Amino acid sequence: MTSTAVPTTAPSHAEPAYVGQKGVWSWLTTVDHKRIGTLYLYTALTFFLIGGLEAEMLRIQLQGPNRHFVSAELYNQLFTMHGTTMIFLAIMPLSAAFFNFLIPLQIGARDVAFPRLNAFSYWVYLFGGIFITLPILFQVAPNGGWFGYVPLTTRQFSAGINIDFWVIGLQILGISSLAAAFNFITTIINLRAPGMTLMRMPMFTWMAFVVQFLLVLAFPVITIALVFLLFDRFFGTNFYEINAGADPLLWQHLFWIFGHPEVYILILPAFGLVSEVLPTYSGKPLFGYPVMVYSGILIGVLGFGVWAHHMFAVGMGPIADSVFALSTMLIGIPTGVKIFNWMATMAQGSIRYTTSMKFGIALVALFTIGGISGVMHSSPPADLQQTDTYFIVAHFHYVLFGGSIMGIFAGIYHYFPKITGRLLNEKLGSWHFWINFVGMNLTFFPMHFSGMLGMPRRIYTYDAGQGWDTFNLMSSIGAYMLAVATLIFIYNFFTSRKRGEIAGPNPWHAGTLEWSIPSPPPEYNFAVLPTVTSRYPLWEGNETDMESARLNSQEGKSAEEMGIILPYNTIKPLIVALGLIIMFCGLITTRVLIFVGAATLVVSLYTWLLSPLEPEHH
Amino acid sequence: MKGNSRLQRFASFGMMVVLALTLAACGEAHPNTTFDPHSDYGRSIDFLWNRLLLLGTIVFVFVEFGLIYIMIRYRKREGDQRPPQTHGNVVIEIIWTLIPAFILLFIAVPTVRTVFKTQAKAVAGALQIEVTGHQWWWEFRYPEYGIITANEIYLPTGRTVNFKMTSMDVIHSFWIPELSGKRDVITNRTNYIWFTPDSTLKPAEWNGFCTEYCGTSHAKMRFRVFTVKPDQFASWVANQQRAAEFGAVAPAKAPAPGAPPAGGPKPATNPAALPPAPSTGAATAAKAVNATVPSTPAYSFPINQPEFEYAKPHTPVPAGMTFTRGLTGNAHRGQQVFSSSACVGCHAIAGNPMAVGNVGPNLTHFGSRATIGAGSYPNTPAYLALWIKNARVMKPGIIMPTLGKDQYDPVLKTKVAAGGLDDQQIADIVAYLSALK
What we know:
The structure holds 2 protein chains of 2 kinds.
Chain A: H1 24-28, H2 33-62, H3 72-107, H4 115-133, H5 162-190, H6 203-235, H7 249-282, H8 289-302, H9 318-346, H10 355-376, H11 380-386, H12 390-420, H13 426-452, H14 469-499, H15 537-540, H16 543-553, H17 559-562, H18 572-588, H19 592-610
Chain B: H1 5-27, H2 40-73, H3 90-118, E1 127-134, E2 137-142, E3 147-150, E4 152-156, E5 161-167, E6 172-175, E7 183-185, E8 191-195, E9 204-210, E10 222-228, H4 230-241, H5 285-291, H6 331-340, H7 343-346, E11 371-372, E12 377-378, H8 381-394, E13 408-409, E14 414-415, H9 423-435
Parallel strand pairs in B: 1-5, 4-10
Antiparallel strand pairs in B: 1-2, 2-3, 5-8, 6-7, 6-9, 9-10, 11-12, 13-14
């Protein structure tokens, strides 16, 4: 790259003093967006492994007909928790890890708008995740599917504590997501550096911006649906009680009005990451930036108008079926545009095949398959042969594994050096990628066939002679390959964390602001707040850009030495989150806990609000 | 990837494994395929599917090969200059916004047309079948004929059948992959789906599935569909309309060894060997069956043909289940035991005034059914004996209690003591139920 004017002097050690304090207490009390992002990353990766383990157990069971590796009861808990874990505890928080770490760096800010609220979001997520995950160890985990259809999940048909964990757990996680969403919206609107207009924002921040609005608009709907169910289960209301004449479709509509935007909540951050990765390794700006922004917004908006395509089998009548079929087909257009624009970004470039780039291209290739099968079931009559079969399982794993997870891995290989100061090992990365890529296709491509050959979803066993044996065996072998690939990644992650090559501020010769500062970034991010004059300040910026980049890439001084005021560390967000969890735990244990939790919450929130965020300015 | 020969060897080995498995998968029979429809509805869907597949394949090939071309053509080479810093091209972007929109038109139009066609009202004179979903079995009623049965449906070929569905408990979904799409079976709602099995279809057996997750044994909520000739259907109907009788039938043997292997003891009589009832024609079928009591034994589908092996359950009995060898059941005694035990609280048998329960499947012509436990096991005395003894072990979560004396009830987590049935009593019940042809 002839254009890279930024000096890339390597720091002498990976964790320089300027990064901030050390020790467990500093992590518990941190309000630094980068450290919170790191906490999100580690926690979400842990849940990703748990969700993966659950998936492996499902695949062991289905490897052949009539197998009994796990009981029917446990199988149903495992598939429920696999979905719930991957969606709410792995992919969403992995995206949140990137939101936290990257948004302030990409827009040239010192932190998010509400640093303590940010910490609160993380702790609520952690506690909620533990709350919903622990029961699987005692085989009392939620067992109603991640979609929790009533009346199966009402007390009448699920008397046990299993569904209680799910209803309460999702409610808790929703609080975390909503708090974070408001935080990021405020951050992006208010804290952009001078010259960082909306149409100069990096594409990842743009997609993150869209996602926050989806969260804010979609989560209240699931919250209401869950409050109804929670009241039915605990206080005897009749929102979903069939004996009181309830219509079970109420839940389905509420759930999918949330559930479909949720799909875009899961995929758009990965689209954003790939829109950073592809230009960087192609050495070209993103092709059609404005169209990429508009198509992202359009996907988000249309995403609220397609929910009933999850319900083509419920008998809504031909008019509703047709309307939702057409709106669903429409959403294929902006998605297609994104695929073409990514290809055009690569075309005429000078493509470097780093691991990150391989994962990024894999997203384009695999999401396309998920998109095509998506159009296939946008047609209601065709969907009536596909819905609730393994064809659908194939489809959404191409979207969520081929799309979200591939994009997130592209992001991890790309940003690991920024987060840790060291590069991930590229050779191990290559093994990880290829085994992952082959394993992913071997797992999920045969599911298209097993589904169209009549295999229903969510069955804990199937009989011999149904024509599904070989396809299931293929899927299971693929799943074991994915386990191997993941182990390679974990090994790579931890060895590179300690002994990886020193990265320097901009190891990939990328063009956006976050690459102008040292890796890992100092606690204050930018020594001087940059003035931005273009979309890729490090590639096409003028002298102002270059000068602030030069100043920012220098390192060594702590915030105190620089005279930069940072927020106090505080344990209060953690205590408030703890109070919240205790309060919810009271519902399933003893009601006294509700009051203990509420008291903890109110008192700690009160002291939080009365204590100053940061030292007074002098 | 240069020089990474280990990766290459690994990749070529993997390709071979995948190829071998793919060949194996193609060699398998696919008895539940959606690609070979046997009804008008199935073909409407198949038409759409073929178009979707064609257009999808074109897009797939275009995008993936374009991507591969770009990856090879624009890979970084020695001495590459900085690539052109293009930011976009409005004309090109408009073109590739319009192309997908254009392709979607070819999907949207036939889609809407098919939606309205398949969801129109069923033709007058269609065979009405009421479907009621239960955790985890299917109740089927033919209101026109006054028939109540469970877990299997007889359909005359060439006549439109209109299913009217609702659920007693949670949501289920009704699906016969080879005949039509699926329709959810929803509590407090009534849904319909109709189709016409091809009149050219020779008598055949099809698998049906519940496809909406409905709790513990969702996987074992299957059913069987028999598409038969109109005269065979008429004969079947005539028999089903009669109250259950078994008087003339000799006591069935219930040998019941420990774990019945596939192809274990067969029912005492095999109706398949008997000639079908005389033909009366489709249109007059209803009248004819009401008027005549067939002198020949009623038609039931010959389930033991190798051609329909896929419709025969192959699930092994859970380990540890045993039954006393060499017992012979007595149907008359069995009737008494059945009528004086818990059975009648849940099961109805027309002709048995004690048996009026409606929680479990109606057992009136139980002996003529192909499976027990909603497609879980073959309906043979050996399996049936174990089923009565401890159904909860054979199908997780079901309401049917564990009945065998000293059997461990996995739900209550206790042993059945007083009131439990001994093996002789169970053998008698087996003889009684098997005789209810």
